[in-house]
């Protein structure tokens, strides 16, 4: 249970964030292939210095509880931003970081956005986000792979003695990604 109007840090769970972000797609799902907020968050965390990796990994974590609203719509709904901010603050309290996102994370987020837009949005779309895209290839992941990717990144950021994962949560690390049911019907090149 998670109360959107009164979020509490003790109700925030790493596995809930990882699971939801791995199933929420960037750009409102209008990409050439599924690309999750979990993948985006891990990639942003790899673009920053080690001291900002946790902040980068969690910069969109509130979306696990409220979804990813496209920026133009979010700008028209100031009440939504208030709720999202309170959830972000509860998440930051849970993991012991400042709710103020470092400028390095914002810059890395813009680089990721530029790269994602160039590779994943329809050709010819002119997207200026104030950053130059990186010349890398974004690889496709199943949602279960993205969840594991995010969880492993979170575990790498975890300080000694932190209780970010329960015993039940640790089982998620052992799960192997499953093939999608649609692929089970493919036989002999059909």
Keyword list:
mainly alpha; 190 residues; Hypothetical protein af1432
Average pLDDT figure: 86
Number of strands: 0
Strand content of the residues, in percent?
under 5%
Task: Write the H/E string, N to C.
Answer: HHHHHHHHHH
CATH names the topology as Hypothetical protein af1432
Helix content class: 40-55%
Shape: globular
CATH architecture: Orthogonal Bundle
CATH level-1 class: Mainly Alpha
Can you count the helices?
Answer: 10
Question: Regions with pLDDT < 50 over 5+ consecutive residues?
Answer: 179-190
- Pairing-aware structural class of the strands and helices? mainly alpha
Gyration radius from CA atoms, angstroms:
17 Å
Main pleated sheet: none
**What is the assigned CATH homologous superfamily?**
Hypothetical protein af1432
Q: How many separate structural domains?
A: 1
What is the terminal-to-terminal distance?
Answer: 44 Å
């Amino acid at each position: 249970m998670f109360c959107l109007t009164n979020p509490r840090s003790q109700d925030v769970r790493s596995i809930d964030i990882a699971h939801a972000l791995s199933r929420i797609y960037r750009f409102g799902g209008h990409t050439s292939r599924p690309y999750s907020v979990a993948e985006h968050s891990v990639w942003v965390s790899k673009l920053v210095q080690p001291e900002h990796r946790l902040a980068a990994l969690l910069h969109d974590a509130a979306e696990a509880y409220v979804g990813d609203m496209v920026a133009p719509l979010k700008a028209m709904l100031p009440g939504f931003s208030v709720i999202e901010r309170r959830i972000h603050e509860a998440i930051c309290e849970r993991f012991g970081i400042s709710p103020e996102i470092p400028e390095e994370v914002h810059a890395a987020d813009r680089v990721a956005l530029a790269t994602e837009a160039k590779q994943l949005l329809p050709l010819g779309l002119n997207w200026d986000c104030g950053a130059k895209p990186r010349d890398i290839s974004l690889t496709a992941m199943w949602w279960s792979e993205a969840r594991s990717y995010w969880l492993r990144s979170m575990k790498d950021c975890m300080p000694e003695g932190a209780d970010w994962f329960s015993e039940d949560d640790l089982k998620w690390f052992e799960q192997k990604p499953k093939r999608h049911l649609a692929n089970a019907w493919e036989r002999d090149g059909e």
